[in-house]
Amino acid sequence: MQLHKSFKALLAGAVIGFGLAACGGGSAGSEPAASGNASNASAAAVAGDDALAQIKERGVIRIGVFGDKPPFGYVDAEGKNQGFDVEIAKYLANDLLGSPDKVEFVLTEAANRVEYVRSGKVDLILANFTQTPERAEVVDFASPYMNVALGVVSPKGAPITDISQLEGKTLLVNKGTTADAYFSKNHPNINLLKFDQNTETFDALKDGRGVALAHDNALLWAWAKENPNFEVAIGNIGPAEHIAPAVRQGNRSLLDWVNQEIAAIKQDGRLNAAYDKTLRPVYGDKEAEILAK
Q1: Whole-angstrom Cα distance, residue 48 to residue 248?
Q2: Strand partners, 243
Q3: How far is CA 279 from the centre of its chain?
Q4: What's the average pLDDT block by block, 10 residues per block, for the chain (293 residues)?
Q5: d(Cα 275, Cα 272) in Å, to the nearest integer?
Q6: In whole angstroms, what is the distance from residue 172 CA to residue 205 CA?
Q7: Boundaries of each Solute-binding protein family 3/N-terminal domain copy (predicted)?
Q8: Torsion angle, CA of 50/56/59/60, rounded to 10 degrees?
Q9: Are 126 and 63 in contact (CB under 8 A)?
Q10: pLDDT in the model for residue 36
Q11: What's the CA gap between 211 and 209, in Å, rounded?
Q12: Looking at residue 179, what is its pLDDT?
């Protein structure tokens, strides 16, 4: 089974220039703080409870996905959304609205995922979103569907096999990713060069603007397979983490429904079918390691 396009072509031709959505913020009212907060919380709860009904009334679910991160989310040569996250999005649209075409894909970048959810630009994020305690403070995560850890890819001729080799050197990362957060917090002596888009980050590695690139290990294995002059010499950094859908805080009805859906596609085999279609050509028989139970 072959991938639709090589990662080299996909990353080079990925969609760029996605719009930025501003995060909305609350303001204090004229009432005492306790009363004002209670009123705001009540209003948010009501709005959240209506989220699922609003999607049904609209007749389309807006789901944030990547446009340049194959094999998870990318735009193919015909301008169509493809990838593992896209397959899951189609399952959700079909079950909720009766057709896999009832989904509006909203292209996002790593740094925009939280604000897209909080601002209401999307109903749901399925953009290879790692569940972290910090993110859980500002969005509501549903049940995970994938396991992930960080890795480091570097040129085969100058492999980075240990993090200590990065001290005082430039490491490439994407803004707003777990790689950005991890190295910023734990390795301040490593110089980070940050980019918005995956295309820019991988091009910078090829151009030698950094000695290595840190990202989700699953993505790096896939990219290195298509770029044989590079290797993932560090395949696992930090604690094991999970990829999960996320909704706006307080959208309880939508969150509960997504949890039911994730459980259903795990049980009825559709999650494995999505793996077979999009990930097996890259990872082979690693579904037991990659797919969350």
Answers
A1: 8
A2: 130, 146
A3: 15
A4: 43 39 32 36 49 95 95 96 98 98 96 95 96 94 95 97 96 94 95 95 97 94 93 90 96 96 98 97 89 93
A5: 5
A6: 7
A7: 60-282
A8: 70
A9: yes
A10: 40
A11: 7
A12: 95
Q: What are 187's two structure tokens?
A: 């390795």
pTM over the 0.85 mark: no
Q: Which two tokens stand for residue 216?
A: 């989700």
Q: If DSSP states are collapsed to H, E and C, what string results for the chain?
A: CCCCCCHHHHHHCCCCCCCCCCCCCCCCCCCCHHHHHHHHHHHHHHHHHCHHHHHHHHCCEEEEEECEECCCEEECCCCCEECHHHHHHHHHHHHHHCCCCCEEEEEECHHHHHHHHHCCCCCEECCCCECCHHHHCCEEECCCCEEEEEEEEEECCCCCCCHHHHCCCEEEEECCCHHHHHHHHHCCCCEEEEECCHHHHHHHHHCCCCCEEEEEHHHHHHHHHHCCCEEEEEEEEEEEEEECCEEECCCHHHHHHHHHHHHHHHHCCHHHHHHHHHCHHHHCCCHHHHECC
The size of the chain, in residues, is 293
The owner of tokens 């189609």 is 90
Q: At 285, list the tokens.
A: 């028989």
Residue 67, token pair as written in the block: 């446009």
Cα gap 149→130, rounded to integer Å: 9
pLDDT score, position 49 = 62
Structure tokens of 112? 């925009």
β-sheet bridge partners, residue 153: 213
Q: ω into residue 188 within 30 of 0, thus cis? A: no
Q: pLDDT value at position 13?
A: 45
Tokens 């805080």 correspond to what residue?
249
36, amino acid identity = G
Burial class (CB in 10 A: 0-12, 13-18, 19+), 2: exposed
